[in-house]
Amino acid sequence: MKVGVLSFAHTHAAGYVHELSTLPGIEVLATDPDGVSSDPAQPRGRALAEQLGVAYADTYEDVFAWGPDAVIVTAENSRHRPLVELAARHGVDVLCEKPLATSQADGEAMVAACREAGVRLGVAYPVRFHRAYAAVKAAAASGALGEILLVTGANNGRLPAGARAWFVDPELAGGGALMDHTVHIADLVDDLLDGQPAVEVYAQANNLLYEGTVSVETAGLVTVRYANGVIVTIDCSWSQPLSHPRWGGVEVQVIGTGAVAEMDAFGQLVGGWDQRDKTAFALPWGSDLDHDLLSSFLLGTSPTGMTVADGEAGLRSLRVALGAMESARSGQAVRLD
Amino acid sequence: MVQADGRREVADLYVGLVGAGVMARTHHQAWRQLGVRIGVYSIDGGGWRLAEEDTGGRTEELGSLDELLARADVVDVCTPTDTHADIVVAAADASRPILCEKPLSLDVAETQRMLDAAAAAGVPLYPGHVVRYFPEYEVLVRQVKDGRIGPPAVLRFTRTGSYPTRSAWFSEPERSGGVLTDQMVHDFDMARLLAGEVVKVHAKELTRVVPPAEPGAVAAATVVLTHAGGAVTHVRGVWGPPGTAFRTGYRVAGPDGVLEHDSAATQAFTLQTGPSDEGVMPDVGLVESPYLGEIREMAEAFCGGPAPRVDGADGLAAVAIAEAARRSSATGEVVEVTR
Questions:
Q1: Which of the listed CATH numbers 3.40.710.10, 3.65.10.10, 3.30.360.10, 2.30.120.10 matches domain A127-287+310-335?
Q2: Does one domain contain both B119 and B69?
Q3: Residue A259 and residue B241: Cβ atoms within 8 Å?
Q4: Measured on CA atoms in the order B289, B290, B292, B297, is the torsion positive or negative?
Q5: How far apart are CA B54 and CA B43, in angstroms?
Q6: 3-class DSSP state for residue A69?
Q7: Which of B204, B255, B332 sits opposite A209 (nearest CB)?
Q8: Most exposed: A122, A131, B291, B330, by fewest CB within 10 Å?
Q9: Which residues span the domain enclosing B196?
Q10: What is the interface size between A and B, counted as CB pairs within 8 Å?
Q11: Is B256 within a domain?
């Protein structure tokens, strides 16, 4: 099977290239024609491909001329659409990095293009592949949770600036923390509630953490009401200190009439102290989320039986993030229906 | 007895304790440790139980509020929330210093009436915001005040326990305010203490309960507060199904760092047994009781010592946030908090 990787703009691209090398029978060709870097320690383009040990093509067209079975789009958020449409035109299945797009119009156009071309559009939400999430689903399915009333979650992380400055560019990223970190938990809820539409979003945001450093919001709280009455609040803040040894995490609590279920997707760690380096360390173990995501999309198998979020699901979680952006601007709750 | 600095001895106080329920018993234990004499009046006639428990013989049951107000040097109000105002006003009119359980009352107007009565009589009125006396929150407050993480930008508080079915009034919104007030007012107070006045509230409460609540009743609420300086706070409160353990947590982030706590992760002692009792109260067995710390500080203030860390104005502000949260949840609107 041939898989193309389109752009190294997203930091996840390197991780996907690595995971692809661990899957059986997969050839990879990457391209990063828009990649420029002034920092030799953070290469882009051919230099990064060489560092990752992956074959490289100069243009997107070269990748499609190679005849891939699937492509992975890891461009900047606002640049997903042309690449997804290109894949659709070539009749190639496409896995797109989250969030699907930075506008409703772009997202809808991408979903329509793939539907009309008869190609699969997947959105790269890895956390739904976690065994802890499978356990939450099982608790819901078994009836142990009872009726789900409230879901709260936190997807905190470090400010994603540094070598990938576009993450804090309002145009290229489509926003700050609200755009980046609302959607992961929104996707889990979307799956848990089986595609239940969000009908109202309220968000408050600020940039008190990085005032003067970046122009986008770096802290945000988002409350969502779903059509079936379930309420969800998400803390999407980039509130993990930059020097913190852990990047952040994804924590979700589900309050039902029968029980309270909690998952901590990045809490499976072996902690320790290194006397030679005089530093603390935390070594992750457990689910390999990117591996399971790619395996599911490309090979149709994953350990928990979870499937990749499709374009419609990606559109629903995008809608929550876009509603949050609008609500944070207006200060009022935003109706989505 | 009066000390050289003009202060009275706490142990010389006669405390009038109004109410004989769970909170009254908790306060009673703290007062006993301070060596005071205690007179208990409870409308349900249950004061004798506290008198009987006090094997030191320093507690007596009193037959009426008037008798209590005539005897007491200070008054401690541990009754259902909707009864606070009239008792506090009566105590103020009798010129008795007052400690009143949180929340002071259910709405701003009534709380203002209580504060006005205390001010007119020239007596202090202290709200029992006991979370300020829990050591893990004392550390948080001190670290934030010392600038450890810079000004808080985004704060998160959680408080989870089993639905309180021990008394019917908890499940009656017009008496307790429900989880959104009775439980979450603790974290509203803490959020305001750390991040400043609250100007905007958005709240959603979900309940599955028919008063009087039976085991199995559930209430959960989520509240987003916006502070005057722009900081944002998420408060989640849960009165969960039977067997839900009592648990609190916070995460407070500022430009220079983060402070985090999860009571489930910091247990110095656990004992694995079968299903736990109702988790409606925090386990304070591994620290000095925060209730004792609270009551000692307030008792010393009553006797001429320094003012405690929380006052009536704080109690009023917390009530204002809780009232706004209930209104937001009921109307679906974002509610501005006016001062």
A1: 3.30.360.10
A2: yes
A3: yes
A4: positive
A5: 20
A6: coil
A7: B255
A8: B330
A9: 132-285+319-336
A10: 122
A11: yes
Does residue B45 sit in the same domain as residue B175?
Answer: no
User: Which residue in chain B has the smallest CA separation from A231?
Assistant: B204
B339 touches chain A (CB under 8 A): no
Nearest CA in chain A to B217: A257
Type of residue numbered A109:
A
Split chain B (339 residues) into runs of 10 and give each run's mean pLDDT.
78 98 96 98 94 95 98 98 98 98 98 98 98 97 98 98 92 95 98 98 95 90 98 97 93 98 86 64 81 97 97 97 98 91
Among the listed residues A196, A187, A197, the one whose alpha carbon sits nearest the alpha carbon of residue A234 = A187
Q: Which two tokens stand for residue B103?
A: 């929340």
In this prediction, residue A281 has a pLDDT band, given cuts at 50, 70 and 90, of: confident
| B97 is a domain residue | yes
Partners of B176 in the β-ladder = none
* A224 CB-near residues (< 8 Å, 6+ apart): A186, A189, A198, A200, A201, A202, A231, A232, A233, A234, A320, A323
Each domain of chain A, given as residue ranges in start order, spans 2-124, 127-287+310-335
pLDDT tens digit string along A70-129?
Answer: 999 999 999 999 999 999 999 999 999 999 999 999 999 999 999 999 999 999 999 999
Cβ within 8 Å, pair A255-B254: no
Pick A235's closest partner by Cβ from B156, B258, B334.
Answer: B156
Q: Output the pTM of the full model.
A: 0.94
Q: How far is B201 from chain A (nearest CA, A)?
A: 10
pLDDT, one tens digit per residue, over B267-276 is 877 777 665 5
